[in-house]
Amino acid sequence: MKSYRDFKRAMIKHEQREKMSLAFVGLGFIPIFFYVLTSRINSFRLPFPAWLRWFGAGIIFAGDLLFVWSHRALGRNWSPFLETWKDHTLVTEGPYRFIRHPMYAAIALIGIGVSFLSANLLVILAHMLSIISMYLVRVSDEEKMMAEQFGDEYREYVQNTRRLIPKLRILRSRKQI
């Protein structure tokens, strides 16, 4: 039963990789707790002006809105784990019209906003590590899974949308004849 052993090893490797990816995302939130609960982290404070910290609060709000919109668009297809099931559908509505991973974009926005709001080097570094690991590990794993599940339909969707940042369409004036 070589094929069963290979399948089992692949599943264990996938589960370990997913746990590691979630752990890195979680690491981004640890400095926030220290920031809130202790003054020791204040030695890493950066001299951000008040307007930049308020800008961070606005980014957090935008990230929260994007997260809720994304979650609603996914509906019953949402899962905290990388998994698909038999009646899973490819969602291309709501924020998924513009980008393939709006929830990850929302998490990145929230992390960036918290970084500005906290004005703390440790918080910024932790969020950068969290966002980069999420992008490198989880996003690519999810894209492979979606391509396996939806085939050509997903590949066409990939051709028309970007991963995390929407395409900017510049309006060009038409030449009058």
UniProtKB/TrEMBL annotation:
PANTHER family: PROTEIN-S ISOPRENYLCYSTEINE O-METHYLTRANSFERASE, PROTEIN-S-ISOPRENYLCYSTEINE O-METHYLTRANSFERASE
Statement: the UniProt record of this protein carries the keyword Phosphoprotein: no
InterPro entries: ICMT_MeTrfase (IPR007269), Isoprenylcys_mtase (IPR054851)
Name under which the protein is recorded: Farnesyl cysteine carboxyl-methyltransferase
Topological category with respect to the lipid bilayer: Multi-pass membrane protein
GO molecular function, one term: protein C-terminal S-isoprenylcysteine carboxyl O-methyltransferase activity
A family per Pfam: ICMT
Organism superkingdom: Archaea
Cellular compartments annotated: Membrane
Keywords: Membrane, Methyltransferase, Transferase, Transmembrane, Transmembrane helix
GO cellular component, as recorded: membrane
Source species of the chain: Methanosarcina horonobensis HB-1 = JCM 15518
